[in-house]
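fyi for ur records
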Amino acid sequence: MRVFLELLAREASAVEFEGPIIEARAAGRGPREIAELEQAKVEALKVRQLLRRRARREAELSALYDTAGDLAGLRDLDAVLEAIVHRARQLLGTDTAYMTLHDPDRGDTYMRVTDGSVSAAFQNLRLDMGAGLGGLVAQTARPYSTADYFADARFRHKTHIDSAVKEEGLVAILGVPLKLGQRVIGVLFAANRSARPFLQEEVALLSSLAAHAAVAIDNARLLQETRNALEELSTAHKRLREHGEAVERAAQAHDRMMQLVLQGRGIEDIAAVVGGRLTVLDGLGKPLTGDLHEPDPGLFEAAQASRALGRTVRRGNQLIASVDVGGEPLCTLIQEHVRDDGTRREAPESDERILERAALACALLLLFKRSVAEAEGRVRGELLDDLIARPHDEGLTERARRLGVDLDEPHTVVVAKHRGQRERAAFWASSQAALAHGLAASRPEEVVLLLPGQQDARRVARELSASLGAPATAGAAGPVTAAAQVRAAYHEAQRCADALVALGRTGDGASAGELGFVGLLIGQDRDISGFVRSALGSVVDYDARRGTNLVGTLAAYFRSGGSPSRTAEAMHIHVNTVSQRLERIASLLGEDWQEPERALEIQLALRLHRLSS
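which gave:
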């Protein structure tokens, strides 16, 4: 018996346990002793088998423990799955082990990890659901094994699967499901290149490894989801922080701009707060500050979109914010973002909010200035109305002086006719009067201006026409140097404007002195001698110097209906003399002296000259 204990102690092979029996027979031992040795051998072999099974179980438990340790320190899913497949191959003593996983996007399974495989076609194999041994395992969620794959008819064979298995040289295959709850996510396999049955212990071991693999896959999924969630939270936190910083920056800029508005500062100060290359346009699209760089034809469409949305609009490297009041554009801000080298850069979102607040601040400033101008315009307009209606009121001069207008200084009265655009014309006239330290009043069809110094009616007509976008006609009178003269000058300027319209000169401007004989007829102070000098002075002076009678010849020429022969008869001179005198007159008066309007002025001047003589 001792000999068998020694064999067990040194883990001898099963063949070596026959040695003591052979030796006993050779020594001639009796049948009873040999039978006892046989019985002892059987018991020793049972002990040997039990020890081997316990050693194997210890190895399996150690492998499972190592696998659990790998899962606990999971960092790389691929490395963990490769370790599980490798341990399965080692513990079961198979030629190869591999794992397939379900692909939810394509609806089939694919080879995920292999160990001991030599075939590229096998390593890249994809299996339809329900196909092959793996398909049977996935469908039933139960382990299956076959000692001879190609002879087994329990599952559905597929040509491309069988071809890959044959190329790999596999014969005996064991597959167990990878399960998460009741859902099968893949299959773990162990396979031999020769026929062999798989014991229940091997099936249980591979199932344990498969359970660990499923946990590893699920942990990796949860870990990835956690990482994704953390990244999303980090991104959201970053955006929230950036948004908060942008809001804080916009709020600080808004507070600063509101302080500037309350302090009565200008649009340039607001533009300095915004920074960058900023252009501020008024309601008519004229720059109030800054310049337009590379004007875009779509600029005003973008401004209209900004007003409709109530937000800043992006166009290339431009930010555009526009504000309206009652549907009327009030101001538009254009901010261009460029680097120091002149290249474009993307504007941060915070700049959009700042530009919106800057547009509101500019709108408030313009509205405030407009309100002040309108209030002051009403006061100035009422004073001018009183000067026209009650020119002899003694208090008018003092009222004008309080508004910074000295009526003792020369002033020109201008009446500008517009076509019903009363509000815009009144705003323009009020602005002009405020800038020039004059007065302005608005009427349904005209505006009246009292401006210091000598004013050009043509300039007034031109600038008002540009502001209205329609022709305006202006008449001027003056200068006046007393409150009592304003009424008469107003009526004269009004008659001048009406005369221009009647003469078809809408959009033009003139004073009575610039209207020729028409001005003589409508002017308040009819300067007859001045008119005669203007129309006929050069001819009168020539006669005085030379002792000729060109004035008489000119009068006779008009009386005879413009006939040189009849003029010669009336003056008892030769017709050639008449022709020579007419040539001289043309050189003195100009070649257009016989044009209808000019001829009419000359004839009127001849009559007045004769009467004054």
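The first strand starts at residue 96 and ends at 103. thats all i got for now
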